[in-house]
Amino acid sequence: xxxxxxxxxxxxxxxxxxxxxxxxxxxxxxxxxxxxxxxxxxxxxxxxxxxxxxxxxxxxxxxxxxxxxxxxxxxxxxxxxxxxxxxxxxxxxxxxxxxxxxxxxxxxxxxxxxxxxxxxxxxxxxxxxxxxxxxxxxxxxxxxxxxxxxxxxxxxxxxxxxxxxxxxxxxxxxxxxxxxxxxxxxxxxxxxxxxxxxxxxxxxxxxxxxxxxxxxxxxxxxxxxxxxxxxxxxxxxxxxxxxxxxxxxxxxxxxxxxxxxxxxxxxxxxxxxxxxxxxxxxxxxxxxxxxxxxxxxxxxxxxxxxxxxxxxxxxxxxxxxxxxxxxxxxxxxxxxxxxxxxxxxxxxxxxxxxxxxxxxxxxxxxxxxxxxxxxxxxxxxxxxxxxxxxxxxxxxxxxxxxxxxxxxxxxxxxxxxxxxxxxxxxxxxx
Length: 430
Known about the structure:
- With 430 residues, this protein is of the alpha/beta class.
- It has 16 helices and 16 strands.
- It folds into two domains: 4-59 and 359-410, Roll (Urease, subunit C, domain 1); 61-352, TIM Barrel, CATH 3.20.20.
- It has a four-stranded mixed beta sheet with strand order 3-2-1-4. A four-stranded antiparallel beta sheet has the order 5-14-15-16, covered by helices on one side. The protein has a four-stranded parallel beta sheet with strand order 6-7-8-9.
- A hairpin with a 2-residue loop joins strand 1 (4-13) and strand 2 (16-26).
- It is globular, with a radius of gyration of 21 Å.
- 53% of the residues are buried.
């Protein structure tokens, strides 16, 4: 890592535009930030990096929920009802992936994310039935592309799921612990798949693991109406209430989707200190529904954004979709502002997945994105332009821990991964 002084003619800091802003990077973290004249002495003897006024420096985007191998499904498994998409695409293709396939698919997906300014991804990884070899391939892909990884290691034992996804709770716990010990940089945590794909016993065990090892618990919950109906029919209660009964509703809980909730369930999430990851593009793509983002945030629930099915892994798209869907849901143009959406894609999104990141402030990791600001109207606040008009093509460079991970064009590794992904798709999808 390079210790350096970074000077920005224009930057977005805590949602506000700052001119002639600077920060000092040491050992991959920001150790000082503020007006250039205030911090220049801290970086006087360091390498200096400077970005002119036609560039806008922003915090790195946080992708709170992804299934990277689903890039193989886009383009041919579109426009299907969920049950057909799951059985005829997801369950047909993903179980066939070898560790080598996983590596190349994840390099391709992570490279796309970095090119879109995503510096952290929480990867909900469920191809664990035969051991950790495929998870290790995903971790290697993250290391070699340079993206920060949170490996939400799935626990799953549904009898209808492919055997490549399933294991017992004891085996899942042992394998998860092995990954934690072997790959501390992967931020491994537990992810019981859902109330329908993990048994009550498995969810209880995952909740106990989360408490014992002080790690997050990610879980798909209340994603579609059928899940609510099934939970009521099988267990006589609603999804969030059932999580609470199973000991899986805590401050460590990351509720993915959380769309079809009663008001009292939203209040339960808030009281527990739980967090939510909203996936607006995938929710539209699969016809799941619209999360009450404004209502949850009003209760104090931190909400992040995720690209989920990775139809297009873009946090700029997700921020825009989140703002527009919130307005549509409430029939109120002020329901969710550009400032709110930007926070969900950066600092609030970091809180949702348990990181102290997402802003250009002292103590945060030096994760930042350099945007081409030439398309921003001179009368437009930069955050509004980014949320409502921004494009991934604006991304000129992406830095993770102060190290440049994307330089404006695909790397040789990214180009090779794209070629390999096409080869894998021909073998498995055509």
